Amino acid sequence: MRIPLQLIVPSHTLKTVDSYALIDSGADISCIDYDFVKKQHLPVSKLEEPICSRNADGSVNKKGDIRYSCTVNAER
């Protein structure tokens, strides 16, 4: 299920980005596409330890481990 939302970057600028969220009730964590983060110039922090990224079938994701985090707030 896709729902419209507005991402709000917690900074002094309060930048907003209109987008959509894909609901995955089986996901263990919340994720955001790294290419989207780069395109929107959202701030990232490097993780101390990477997180192994796996697909729904258990195979390793071809884009590799998750190495960064991005903190944003979402409003609908």
Notes on the structure:
This protein has one domain (2-75). It has a 3-stranded antiparallel beta sheet, with no helix packed on it. It is 8% helix and 37% strand. It has one helix at 34-39, and strands at 2-8, 16-22, 45-51, 66-69, 73-75.
Computed Rg: 13 Å
Low-confidence stretches: none
Instruction: Report strand order across the widest sheet.
Output: 2-1-5
Mean residue pLDDT: 83
Order of helices and strands: EEHEEE
Overall number of structural domains? 1
Shape descriptor reads globular
Residues in helix, %: under 10%
Structural class, please?
mainly beta
By DSSP (H or I, 4+ residues per run), the number of helices equals 1
- Terminal CA distance reads 14 Å
Number of strands: 5
Provide a compact summary of the structure:
The protein is mainly beta and 76 residues long.
Features:
76 residues; 1 helix; 5 strands; globular
Task: Please outline the helices and strands.
Elements: E1 2-8, E2 16-22, H1 34-39, E3 45-51, E4 66-69, E5 73-75
Antiparallel strand pairs: 1-2, 1-5, 3-4
